[in-house]
Amino acid sequence: MHHIPQADRDAALSGMFRVLRPGGTVLLADAHPSGPILPILIRAMSRSAARRTADQVAGHTDPVDALDVRRYIPDLTSQGFTSVEFHTIRSSTGALIGRKPDRAG
């Protein structure tokens, strides 16, 4: 998801919902900075580039939150996906899994 321009992400999620069969599953894998060191490194690198931080422009005050895949949970639910769950894959990767409702509900 982080490779899709910010302005195009809603359209990308909408397209995913549109083409997914009823009852189908979407999986978004992206950054999930966790553990004791990675968030510290991200914050330090962000401070060094803070003069023009993209995360503050995007409305995130904490650069770790701006990178975390969990930021897409509200977007998935607003598109109509249900049962959205977060899973850690590795210390720096997470996945969101959501379901497109069946036609009958």
Topology:
Layout: H1 9-19, E1 25-31, H2 38-48, H3 54-57, H4 63-67, H5 73-79, E2 82-90, E3 93-99
Antiparallel strand pairs: 1-3, 2-3
Note down, in words, how this protein is organized.
- With 105 residues, the protein is α+β, with helices and mostly antiparallel strands.
- It has a single domain, classed as Vaccinia Virus protein VP39 (Rossmann fold, 3-Layer(aba) Sandwich), CATH 3.40.50.
- Helices cover 36% and strands 22% of the residues.
- The protein is built from five helices and three strands.
- It has helices at 9-19, 38-48, 54-57, 63-67, 73-79, and strands at residues 25-31, 82-90, 93-99.
- It has a three-stranded antiparallel beta sheet with strand order 1-3-2, with helices on one face.
- It is globular.
- The model has no long low-confidence stretch (mean pLDDT 77).
Task: Looking at this protein, list some descriptive labels.
3 strands; about 100 residues; Rossmann fold; three-stranded antiparallel β-sheet
